[in-house]
Specification:
297 residues; 11 helices; signal; OmpA-like_sf; disordered N terminus; 4-stranded mixed β-sheet; 6 strands
């Protein structure tokens, strides 16, 4: 559960906030943050619009106020509160301040717990994108490399588990680098008719979304790696995984991708490793296993 990490967030960030700035509201909210005074931080953020602060400073004041409230929530959860008891407050922080990334991350956890995988994917992706915005998320507020990789993996896992396609093109889903952290592989929920290499209607939508991403990122070459669930023989699954990767390759070329595409079939040999396998039934686990990974060179 994420909240094990959230308690650490409070202690790591509390001593790292910058001590000075030209904007008085910024100075005040940093002092409130370091004192753990969420009410004072909120009051300062409410009046920052009338202060002598730039637009970015006003936004950052709100982010720090949001983080101050978030730290209070994380401390309460570490002390035994349920995260879902704070859902309304987290949603209010999102609406009021548009972040910070820790709020999106927690909302992703809540959506995942109620099995709303589509919403969870969007929240984790928003956390990843927000945490990578170096203007609104300065280094002292940013996720570290391991957490960036975690957020990307969770966003991908939720896309695979969602009953409907979740667009990669939403916000930063197509990106392969966040704060200098390179993410080579993206798992795509391209779905096929059972036992065949033919797209379902949802599969066509996911393939189209991947095509749009490739047009945006423009990699010189990619490798498509097909995977199946363990249903059926290993030999048949190997052939099926390769055939499905080949179908996607043909689609991407026809859609205008001009780079080089290699295909690999892994069959059932490399099942997806979810963050918490116990959260899924067998059918959903098999849905996670059935995927095509895109390795961006």
């Amino acid at each position: 559960m994420l909240m094990r990490s959230l308690a650490a967030t409070f202690f790591v960030l509390a001593g790292a906030a910058p001590a000075a700035a030209t904007c008085d509201a910024f100075k005040g909210v940093v002092e409130a943050f370091n004192a753990g005074d969420a009410q004072k931080a909120h009051s300062i953020a409410e009046t920052a619009g009338t202060a002598n602060c730039s637009a970015n400073e006003r936004t950052l004041v709100g982010r720090i106020a949001g983080l101050t409230a978030f730290n209070r929530i994380s401390t309460a959860v570490a002390g035994g509160d349920r995260l879902d008891a704070h859902r309304t407050e987290l949603e209010d922080l999102q609406k009021a301040y548009g972040g910070p990334w820790q709020v999106f991350d927690a909302l992703g956890d809540l959506a995942r717990e109620r099995k709303d995988y589509e919403a969870a994917s969007r929240f984790y992706q928003m956390a990843l994108e927000d945490g990578s915005n170096e203007t609104l998320t300065p280094e002292w507020m940013a996720p570290d490399e391991q957490y960036i990789l975690r957020l990307d993996k969770l966003a991908s896992e939720m896309r695979l588990a969602a009953p409907r396609p979740v667009q990669l093109a939403m916000r930063g889903g197509c990106k392969v680098s966040f704060r200098g952290v390179k993410i080579k592989k993206k798992s795509t929920p391209v779905r096929y008719v059972f036992g065949t290499a033919d797209f379902t209607p949802d599969g066509v939508a996911a393939a189209k979304d991947l095509s749009e991403c490739l047009k945006a990122v423009k990699p010189a070459s990619i490798t498509l790696i097909g995977h199946t669930d363990p249903v059926g023989s290993a030999a048949a699954n190997y052939k099926l995984s390769l055939a499905r990767a080949e179908t996607l390759k043909a689609y991407l070329h026809d859609a205008g991708y001009a780079g080089t595409i290699a295909t690999v079939g892994k069959g059932e040999d490399e099942p997806f490793k979810p963050d918490d396998a116990s959260a899924y039934d067998t059918e959903t686990l098999n849905q996670l296993h059935r995927r095509v990974e895109v390795d961006v060179e």
